[in-house]
Write a structure and sequence with these properties.
- The chain has about 425 residues and is an alpha/beta fold.
- It has three domains: about 170 residues, Rossmann fold; about 160 residues, Dihydrodipicolinate Reductase, domain 2 (2-Layer Sandwich), CATH 3.30.360; about 90 residues, ACT domain (Alpha-Beta Plaits), CATH 3.30.70.260.
- It is built from 14 helices and 17 strands.
- Strands 7, 8, 9, 10, 11, 12, 13, 14, 15, 16 and 17 form an eleven-stranded mixed β-sheet that branches. A six-stranded parallel β-sheet has the order 3-2-1-4-5-6, with helices on both faces.
- Helix 4 links the parallel strand 4 and strand 5.
- The N and C termini lie far apart (about 50 Å).
Length: about 425
């Protein structure tokens, strides 16, 4: 059978890892797909740089368009990142009748609707397993393994940098700023860490997971996004004392009144498996109406874990490269004609429990005043904790954990309490999920 020729755009950490895995596992790959899969071309910024893989049989170029236009390339692997150039290259490859594999979550989250439509029109596929959670294969699991379910909820630790920071804050009592500096030194975080710590990276990935879960168009702009940069050691410690851990989650949830798409810090009971995913590891919890809760865990980044997912996508394409387009798994797991718009709720309409911490003057009657505000909004409380005042300080921390309610009502309570003369400092609000 004909050899499948692969061109890689970007031969950095993931690109070099992909070529290395294809070279090292060539015999096993042949046994699986029945034909040779060879990387024959790659685009690079610097022709003289050291590589993870053997480049002796590769044609290297600084012009990525040479690869997407080359007649002998069957599959284009886009690993340069970013949006504009990557989008132009992917659309050009598609128009040239080439299959595409990408690890670019921003590209798919922001431009996937256009890219998938172009792929459908040209009879090719775009695969993107490595765009979410590295080597976990969560996309294949949701599109295929859980295809018989209605998905009720997806909740994921899908950014390793944020998870590393929160783990260090909890385990070692280190400040956010201190751990972030180490994450940058270790290469977990970029010099500008905004995408990681403010939730943008996780929101890109949640956009993809939500569309696969619910058969909706990709709609990044509707994801509510909140980062971890404002979290304090105080709340990390109090959460632990109360039997919870704080994780930065992406959550997609189907309700009778619409979809909730949200990324934010979340208190989770410490006994839950997902609460015990630490360091740079990723995990995605998927709840289906038939299977119940499933947890998918593994390395979310790194050269070979991500390359593992890239290569798996390549091999899926190779297996069906001579077949009809209609026989392939649809890009989002639903027939293109069945991708349907659904209402996405504003954050005030989210249905969630909340952890609320107020700093209040330690005077008689203040607790009853605070509690009365919850009663006015008909919000039931799971628990109330009052901490001892620090020496020489007349302020105490009072923590309320609500039962599940509409978030807008919680915000009204917070506004009323913050207006009281006995209350100092802005309140802290962190959402709570129990995953029963």
């Amino acid at each position: 059978m004909k050899t499948v020729n692969v061109g890689i755009l970007g031969l950095g950490t993931v690109g070099g890892g992909t070529a290395l895995v294809l070279q090292r596992n060539a015999q096993e790959i042949f046994r699986r797909v029945g034909r040779e899969v060879l990387v024959t071309m790659a685009s690079v910024r610097n022709l003289e740089s050291d590589r993870l893989c053997d480049c002796s049989n590769l044609s290297l170029t600084q012009d990525p368009f040479r690869i997407v236009d080359h007649a002998d390339i069957d599959v284009v692997v886009e690993l340069i990142g970013g949006e504009s150039l990557a989008k132009d290259l992917v659309l050009r490859a598609i128009s040239n009748g080439k299959h595409v594999v990408t690890a670019n979550k921003a590209l798919i989250a922001l431009h996937g609707n256009e890219i998938f439509a172009a792929a459908e029109a040209n009879g090719v596929s775009v695969s993107f397993e490595s765009a979410v959670a590295g080597g976990i294969s969560i996309i294949k699991s949701m599109r295929e393994g859980l295809a018989g379910n209605q998905i009720e909820m997806v909740a994921g630790i899908i950014n390793g940098t944020g998870n590393f920071i929160l783990t260090e804050m909890r385990d070692k009592g280190r400040t956010f700023e201190d751990v972030l500096a180490e994450a940058q030194a270790l290469g977990y975080a970029e010099a500008d860490p905004t995408f990681d710590v403010e939730g943008i990276d996780a929101a890109h990935k949640l956009t993809i997971l939500a569309s696969i879960a619910y058969g909706t168009p990709l709609q990044f702009e509707k994801v509510y996004t909140e980062g971890i940069s404002a979290l304090s050691l105080t709340d990390v410690a109090y959460a632990e004392e109360l039997g919870y851990r704080i994780k930065h989650l992406g959550i997609a949830k189907a309700t009778d009144t619409g979809l909730e798409l949200r990324v934010h810090p979340t208190l989770i009971p410490a006994a839950r498996l997902i609460a015990n995913v630490n360091g740079v590891m990723n995990a995605v919890l998927v709840k289906g109406n038939a299977v119940g809760n499933t947890l998918h865990y593994g390395a979310g980044a790194g050269a070979e874990p991500t390359a593992s997912a890239v290569v798996a996508d390549i091999l899926d394409l190779v297996r069906g490269i001579d077949g009809a387009c209609a026989s392939r798994v649809p890009h989002l797991g639903f027939q293109a004609s069945e991708i349907i718009e659904r209402e996405v709720k504003a954050h005030a309409k989210f249905e969630t429990a909340c952890y609320l911490r107020f700093e209040v003057k330690d005077v008689a009657g203040v607790m009853s005043k605070l509690s009365a505000e919850f009663a006015k909004q008909n919000i039931s409380l799971e628990g109330i904790t009052q901490k001892e005042p620090k020496a020489g300080d007349d302020l105490v921390s009072v923590i309320f954990i609500t039962q599940v309610t509409e978030e807008g009502r919680v915000d009204e309570v917070v506004a009323s309490i913050e207006a009281m003369s006995e209350v100092f400092k802005p309140a802290v609000k962190i959402r709570v999920e129990h995953f029963n």
